[in-house]
Design a protein that fits this description.
The protein is an alpha/beta fold. The chain contains ten helices and 14 strands. About 35% of the residues lie in helices and about 20% in strands. α5 packs antiparallel against α6.
């Protein structure tokens, strides 16, 4: 039975019943589809969809999040493509939407992430499982002990050094811990050299494991510019993956505060 749903961009998407051939272009949402119990229904993922590992090894890969091979998706004949405003390119998403139902998420806060999980559950006929996941995340975040207030900066890239502004999902997660993003008045992903943080009152710098794979050797680069600031390597998935991985975030956050 045909039905029309509205995605997080306000677009109306026409579906022909529950989808049986899903292509996911978003790593965190690919993991969500797995945790919703959609095994055979997912036929295509990106090369960055590393969770679960069994899918990473076995599912057809359709390219990267920003370099999708449209011809492979044509071969897969999906009845639903799941994309994201930020992680995928507008040009490719629009090209796919001319042929297939494309549902787009747009997530900058935890609340929006929870709404996305419920919506994907509804899309795929897994409403009950989605509600369980959301309940798990809500209870975990509610039990998270607020950390000692700290002013922090979070880096996602170097050459150039890129951080996160206040209108990002990562910044919202920082605030859930009880910390303050020193760049909360900036937008999206500003280029900010470590030296430029000296006047912000920053107390701790977080170096993410993704998308740039920060390692121990990069701590010294920050310490050279900010010798009195604590520098910590953190699991970027816990701060930026807005799907079912959020069930594990509260426990991780408790271990780093």
């Amino acid at each position: 039975m045909e039905r029309t749903v509205t995605d997080m961009m306000g677009r109306r998407v026409l579906l022909n019943g529950e989808p049986k051939r899903i292509v996911s272009l978003v790593p965190s949402q690919t993991e969500l589809l797995h945790d919703l119990g959609l095994e055979e229904e997912v036929v295509g993922i990106t090369k960055f969809c590393i969770h679960p590992e069994s899918w990473f090894r076995s599912k057809r890969r359709v390219g990267g999040t920003k370099s999708v091979h449209l011809e492979i998706i044509d071969e897969l004949k999906p009845d639903l493509v799941i994309a994201n405003k930020e992680e995928n390119t507008q040009e490719q998403v629009e090209a796919l939407a001319e042929k297939y139902p494309v549902w787009i998420s747009d997530i900058r806060t935890l609340d929006e992430a929870l709404q996305m999980i419920l919506s994907v559950g509804e899309l795929t006929g897994r409403e009950g499982k989605a509600a369980d996941i959301v309940s798990n995340i809500r209870s975990g975040m509610a039990s998270l002990q607020t950390a000692q207030p700290l002013r922090v900066a979070y880096y996602i890239w170097r050459n150039p050094w890129m951080s996160v502004g206040g209108d990002t999902f990562i910044s919202d997660m920082i605030s859930r811990i009880g910390w303050t993003n020193v760049l909360e008045n900036e937008s999206r992903y500003p280029v900010v050299n470590p030296e430029s943080l000296r006047g912000t009152g920053v107390q701790r710098v977080l170096l993410s494991s993704e998308p740039y794979p920060f390692k121990e050797q990069h701590i010294g680069e920050i310490k050279q510019a900010l010798p009195n600031v604590e520098v910590t390597l953190v699991d970027g998935e816990m701060f930026s993956w807005y799907g079912s991985r959020l069930m594990h975030a509260p426990g991780y956050f408790s271990g780093i505060v």
